Fold this protein.
Amino acid sequence: MDKNEFTAMYEQWFALHPFKKRDWPELGKVHYQAFSRESPALFQEALGMLTEEIDNFPSPKQIRAKLNALSNNKTEGEGKTNTTSENEMIATRLLEHKMGVEYNGKQVKEPDGFPLWIDQLVDKTIAELGPKYPMKTLLGTLGYLVVQAEGRR
């Protein structure tokens, strides 16, 4: 975003706080350095929402918090989790169950209705790596195997 386009996004704030227009040469440098690489649409949306939420001129901290919240909302609401991620989660839970992993003193439950190929990958991972490697290594290897298997399907 160039400086003129960036400054134009603050026009609504200058209308509400005319004295900030006077301070913009210095203040604008700070804001531009912090936010010039943001998506213009997301940045405009964040500034617009802040207009309704706060009475003072927005600080970089307030803008960043709003951008992060909007960014999280946009990604959380999009579509359905892909099948590979779901299969990795099922495989992870099955591996944890078979290895006797406990969370808060309760053993991980076996997932319901998992495919046979996932069970086979978990068994293969345990047989090849077993207790001689840390759980993190088993989980990483299993995740890799699930992704490979998904690629062949």
